[in-house]
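Justification of computing resources. Each target in the renewal requires a structure prediction run like the one illustrated here; the chain below, 183 residues long, is used simply to show the kind of job we budget for.
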Amino acid sequence: MAIGYRHTKTYIAASFDHDRDAVEKLYEWNKDNKLSFHFVDVHSLTQSYDTSRYCSIKKSLSERMSVSKTFILIVGQHTNEVTKGACYNNGCGGYVRLLLSNPYCKYGYPINNKSYIQYECDLAIRENAKIVVLYNSVNVDRNRCPEVVRYKGTHIAMKCRKNAIWGSYVDWDYQAVKNAVMD
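Resulting structure tokens:
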């Protein structure tokens, strides 16, 4: 790995089932180079598929995080409820628990009952990445943030209330996000 290679990569974690709009907004801002928000998304380096084993996906996530400088976590209403990636969900069919035995993986991998989001947050801490937590809301509610990064890094709301002739409305807060990511 080249010395400067890590300094250009950004890792984005989110519940894509619930917060896809916020992820897409980041990609939209990133694509618009005139806004000086440009980053290289580490997810473009390697692909994982929903049909892959959870342990294979987590290995890919670890590889991506190892070349990342910045970790962006998008926190929404359901972030702490997401369990996808936990072995006990048996999404890959490898989790085996017999009546009185400890669970094991029939493929020979260690059992990891952390969701993908929890796992990614742990990786960000381990890799000493810059942590930016963006709330898909007008408020920062740290209780919705995974505990391991709840009081780490920069936490900001991605949305703000704007005033208009007919009252106020909610809109994306580009400047706040840019300041947090580029700081």
